[in-house]
Amino acid sequence: SLDRNYSGLIDRGIPVLQEVRQLTKETVSMQRQALATMVAAEPVARREATQRLQVAIARQKNSLARLLQTDALVARPELSKTLRQSSQSYESDLATFLVHLEAGRRDEADKLRVESLRPSVNSYLDVIDEAAVAVETNGKEMTGLISDRVRTQSTILVGLASWPLLVGLVIVVLIGLIIGLLVFIYRQVGTE
Asked: What's the rounded mean pLDDT across residues 155-164?
């Protein structure tokens, strides 16, 4: 039972941490691809960079969807909502950035990148960090619950395992009382 509890904790905890890590990685990849799209001067290079950005966006969305389904975030609906909203805000800014780039408005795209896209991704990464803290907190709570259960089970097992010692102690006390009583009776009979 104890092994299963800890195994379950590990089985649930490690994939969630992996999802947080993956979401961070995909978000940073999106930002890099956005910059690569902007600096690509050739139309073919820009189109390829845009395609890579679309792949990065799809990966980020999948990673976010998996993270939002984890116990740690299901238990925290406000954080999940904030994470979703922050992602949508970033994706909206990114879409506007791409519209400017595709229309050939590089100056507007660069201005948007600096004034809106960069703060948006930073805000999103901060919310992802909050999710990581929530996952850590959830893991600590689960570990505490399991530790409490283990302590209770250990107390019960020690109590059950020590009954022969208690019986032996009672027998020794009884034998001591009987011997003491016999010695007392023997002395009483000998003095009369």
From this structure: 77
Residues 67 and 18 sit within 8 Å (Cβ to Cβ) = no
For residues 131 and 79, the answer to whether their CB atoms sit within 8 Å is: yes
Residue 8: pLDDT band by 50, 70, 90 thresholds? low
Compute the average pLDDT of residues 68-85.
88
**Phi, psi (degrees; rounded to nearest 5) at 104:** 80, 15
Distances (CA, A) of 89 to 95, 96, 119, 131, 189: 10, 11, 11, 17, 101
